[in-house]
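Field: sequence (string)
Field: structure_tokens (string)

Example rows 1 and 2, in order.
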Amino acid sequence: MLKDLLAKLKIDGYILALFGMVVLASVLPVRGEAAMIVGWVVKIAIALLFFLHGAKLSREAVVAGLTHWRLHLTILAFTFVLFPALGLLISRSGVLSPTLSSGMLFLCCLPSTVQSSIAFTSIGRGNVAAAVCAASASNLLGIFLTPVLVGVLMQAHGDVGGWDSVQSIVVQLLVPFVAGQLLRPWVGPWIEKHKALVGQVDRGSILLVVYSAFSAAVVGGIWKIVSIPELFLLLAVCAALLAVVMAATVFGSRALGFSKPDEVAIVFCGSKKSLATGVPMAGILFPGATAGILVLPLMLFHQIQLMACSVIAQRYGARPADEA
């Protein structure tokens, strides 16, 4: 019954689990020596998470889609140019507190999602093959581009400790990712056979990172820093950001002369941000207390994008067949 209610409200149960970790960390934060142990477990979980990302990513799909370069460049421009520009605008507008502004800026530096981008493109009768390639390429390039953007934009914003932090995040994420790619011929078939188990490990790792980060944030006094009115204001800013980017992807793809299936792929690949990549990156790049606050905008934005894209994908899918 609860599952049916969540489906009607377009609420992802996994998002509820993430916020459940926030509540658990608020009530029972991990401290002291236990926090150190959890910290090491989190590092192992992050390495495993990106190893699985590397092992799951099909190089054939990326290579096959490179011929549609105009579409891919358009999506990458929305993901790594428009979003960061809007993030800078928000951070300098003074609408949010400095800490939440930093979280919005971090959100805007992240790559697109993979699974949901492809799923929504399929529902909207878009160019699924291009979506597979574009979403995969976004995540692959994000391992390089996101740390660079964070280093340039957030260092200027006073949030990170320079290029050493950028180098650290690249090494900690890139090494297991490359290892997964290299071992794909051997571990790939096993991963394909046990998708459900791999998915549980994938999501469980992120839940653990969120719990660890928010525990440190609670110990550091997060709920004295962020008030309830600020949370509602953050929700409104996230919704406005998504609306602006989605409008830009729709009208931009039409102005550039893309077909309707390509437009669908651009809208759903160019307007979303990856929770699966963002949470581990925040856990590596920022101190625990800071990371816990910085992922708040990402968690809210993720739920909003799922709800909005679900409705828009169905509207795209309901268009006349001759427009496909």
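Row 2 begins here:
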Amino acid sequence: MSETPCLIALDTATEVVHLALCQGERTWVRALGGGAQASASLLPGVQALLDEAGVPRSALQAIAFGRGPGAFTGLRTACSVAQGLALGLGLPVLPLDTLALVAESARQRCTPLATQLSDHPATVVWVLQDARMSEVYAQPWGWRPAQGWCALAQPALWPAARLTDTALAHVTASPDATGLGRVWACGTALAAFPEQAQALGAAGVGCVPEAAPEGAALAVLARQAWAQGLACDAALALPLYVRDKVAQTTAERAADRVAAALAERA
């Protein structure tokens, strides 16, 4: 594989569309409105990024995309656009784990975390993304300087209340006698569920709530995937689903409202 690839990378798993263009050592990034706007804004955003950099589509060598987990519509949008671009240009795709992108964003944003990862290979970074419906996409990641992010378990879908106990279990299992500083948490669930985030912080877990699958993280992981020979056929541009149910039934929503009302009275 070329050491200085030309790649376009995109992620639409959250409420923001994140884009990155890599050409050699240079990187251009862009963030656009996501959600319902993603399908309309994604292709124009890709073209605008190419125009800004003065890079023709013919120069691209692969299309990288965040495969999830994340919002169902967003994942389908990312996969279909990545596949369409790749097929149209005769290029391979580079599937990227969206939760790894969030971990990389936390590493870039938080100097103490970056230092911890370099000095202590046993450091665990929990990526905790708001999955709506009072649930969280959760996955622990480790950092290896020679290869980058390594998944320590499969991504899971948890009730929000569970994330504190499970993440804290890694604190007590840390090689450090105190456990402090060896476990970190990042992602949108920290803002969505502040009580759990507060409990994590009180236990010594470092928190990076602003981490997101943003352009700078896309660029790093896309380059790494290219260098590791992970490019594959466009037909394999498939989403990573963790939740097999996208919405609650009317009865389930009614039950949740009753439970919430009872909790308020308690």
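free_text_note (row 2): The longest strand covers residues 135-144.
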